[in-house]
From TrEMBL:
Gene3D superfamilies named among the record's database cross-references: Chorismate lyase-like (3.40.1410.10), Winged helix-like DNA-binding domain superfamily/Winged helix DNA-binding domain (1.10.10.10)
Any single Pfam family the record assigns to this protein: GntR
InterPro entries: Bact_HTH_transcr_reg (IPR050679), Chorismate_lyase_/UTRA_dom_sf (IPR028978), TreR (IPR012770), Tscrpt_reg_HTH_GntR (IPR000524), UTRA (IPR011663), WH-like_DNA-bd_sf (IPR036388), WH_DNA-bd_sf (IPR036390)
Molecular function, one GO term: DNA-binding transcription factor activity
Phylogenetic lineage: Bacteria, Bacillati, Bacillota, Bacilli, Bacillales
PROSITE patterns: HTH_GNTR
HTH gntR-type domain mapped to chain residues: 3-71
Name of the protein described by the UniProt record: Trehalose operon repressor
Top-rank taxon, per record: Bacteria
Organism of provenance: Paenibacillus etheri
UniProt keywords, alphabetically: DNA-binding, Repressor, Transcription, Transcription regulation
GO BP terms: negative regulation of DNA-templated transcription
Length: 239
């Protein structure tokens, strides 16, 4: 019976969010208010809220409660390599790239591990905030081996780096390994992005390889969690 009750709460609130009865930013009743309204325990209510949270319907802010997320998210493919410009063109959205820095400096120990190079080897560091429909919602931190990419500039970074690398430099970019996690947002995230009250951010780490299997780029792409859903196509393999 308890399982039916928590699913009832989940279904009613997910339907209200989908139908627009509950708008993005709306605050849900507290656990005690929901428990009283549904005649159930706070444990059952908490189970329903956790499911709404996991499915991306709500965001929990400690000490403040649960708030409805914007369900009109942009699809970001897990498989495949797509640049920000290509994604924005696909969405048909107004976009802008804001370059914070383009630096050429020694890798240091952390980057050296990611790029599998000596720590004194030079890398290009490019930091860019991505704005879609007037909101800065992606922070891209790209690192390129300088022995493979000898020159970058702010002007190049404001456009499409992949267009420059492939068309101007003739590099054959082939594949990437991606790691996706949800992590606490940093001071840099809050200073460069419009994060509102969100305390966490989706981080996509890309290790990008050339056609000759050489690792030449490491990227941290940091996304505001209410604006994206990461999609893939999967096919079951029959054994």
């Amino acid at each position: 019976m308890r399982e039916n009750k928590y699913l009832q709460i989940y279904n009613e609130y997910s339907n209200q969010i989908h139908s627009g009865q509950l708008l993005p930013g709306a605050k849900l009743p507290s656990e005690s208010e929901l428990a009283e309204a549904y005649g159930t325990s706070r444990e059952t209510v908490r189970k329903a809220l956790n499911l709404l949270f996991r499915e991306g319907y709500i965001h929990k802010i400690k000490g403040r409660g649960s708030f409805v997320l914007d369900m009109t998210r942009m699809d970001f493919p897990i498989t495949g390599l797509i640049s920000f410009k290509e994604m924005a063109d696909t969405l048909g959205a107004t976009s802008r790239t804001l370059v914070k820095e383009t630096l050429n400096e020694p890798a240091g120990s952390a980057l050296a591990r990611h790029l599998q190079i000596p720590h004194e080897a030079l890398v290009w560091k490019v930091t860019r905030a991505r704005e879609i429909e007037g909101e800065r919602i992606i922070l891209d931190k790209d690192y390129f081996r300088a022995d493979i990419v000898p020159f970058l500039s702010k002007e190049i970074a404001e456009g499409s780096l992949y267009e420059y690398l492939e068309q101007e430099m003739g590099l054959k970019i082939s594949y990437a390994k991606k790691l996706i996690s949800v992590e606490p947002s940093t001071e840099e995230d809050h200073s460069l992005l419009d994060l509102k009250n969100y305390t966490h951010i989706v981080v996509v780490r890309n290790y990008v390889y050339l056609e000759n299997t050489m690792l030449f780029q490491y990227t941290e792409s940091r996304h505001r969690l209410d604006k994206f859903q990461f999609v893939d196509f999967a096919r079951r393999v029959r054994r």
